[in-house]
Amino acid sequence: MRATLVAFIVLAMAAGARAGVYGIEIDGKKTWLTINTPAGWTESEREAPIDGLIWNFTPIDHKTNAFCELWLLDVSDKEYSTKKKLSRQVEDLARKMVTSLDPKLRMPDVKPFNCKQGFGFYYSLVDPSMAGKASQPGNPKQVTGGLIRLESGVVIEVRIASDGDKTEGYQQLLAMVEALQLKH
After folding, report:
1. How many Cα atoms are found within 13 Å in the side-chain-facing hemisphere of 183?
2. How far is it, in rounded angstroms, from Cα 68 to Cα 139?
3. pLDDT band at 148 (very low <50, low <70, confident <90, very high)
4. How many domains does the chain have?
């Protein structure tokens, strides 16, 4: 897949949320990726160091201790063609993350995203040193990582850092990620 940013259009939506519509070219075909940025969040995009695009989402209110990064990956059509292959890849990502940490954490459960389009899986790790402590801006308690396959050759890597999956910031970012959509 060869993805290039063609255009950026911001559309106003209800309750202050914004739908960013990004024209991307995949194998010579124009496709539109819609990302519904929640109200109260800023979005920026840039080209990845190696093929692909990266979007960053940060809260306007600095009391919200969360952020998100989405990577449009350059993958072959068959790399993540089934739920089983994608789930296995997310398990591998989680395993690598766990083995890189000290102290070692237990292997997290891999769960499915509730995707509007395509399918995806994620894992979450909680920093044990942050358990029971007050929120510390810029130092989230939980990291969530995963992959979403929107269609053949279109995979988004998801990274969410937050103070936990019950927080408003996490829930807003999760809803945004699960609503990702492609149109031709």
Report:
1. 7
2. 13
3. very high
4. 1
Extract the tokens encoding 2: 């060869």
Q: What is the C-alpha R_g of the chain?
A: 16
Burial class (CB within 10 angstroms; exposed 0-12, middle 13-18, buried 19+) of 5: middle
Which phi-psi region, left, alpha or beta, contains residue 118 (left: φ > 0; alpha: ψ -120 to 50)? Answer: left
CATH of the domain at 61: 3.40.1000
Q: What is the pLDDT of residue 16?
A: 56
The sign one gets for the Cα dihedral 37, 179, 117, 12 is negative
Residue ranges making up the domain that contains 122: 5-183
Q: What is the pTM of this model?
A: 0.88
Whether 112 shows a pLDDT value over 90: the answer reads: yes
